[in-house]
Design a protein that fits this description.
Layout: H1 3-14, H2 18-23, H3 29-32, H4 47-56, H5 59-69, H6 77-86
Helix pairs in contact: 5-6
Length: about 90
Amino acid sequence: MNIKAICLGAAIAFSPSGGIALAGTLGEPDTMKPFFTDASMKTMKPLKEFKDVFMAMPAEKQQAMKNECAGMVQPYTAFCANVNTLGGHN
């Protein structure tokens, strides 16, 4: 993993506004719900269905997700792996 990404992540996580900075698109329940099979958002849809939801989103939202997923670890590891695969960042 890139040391700059680790340091940036740590700086954001430990900053007073860290929770707010990471909220973004990935923290919007209405945006995230369509990617999951259950109301509790514990089980992600299979990649094909995930892709259908992702591709139906406006380009700006797709880009925002890609940006937030760059270097993202927890709690969105599996989600961001799918976004990165679809965004060509794998």
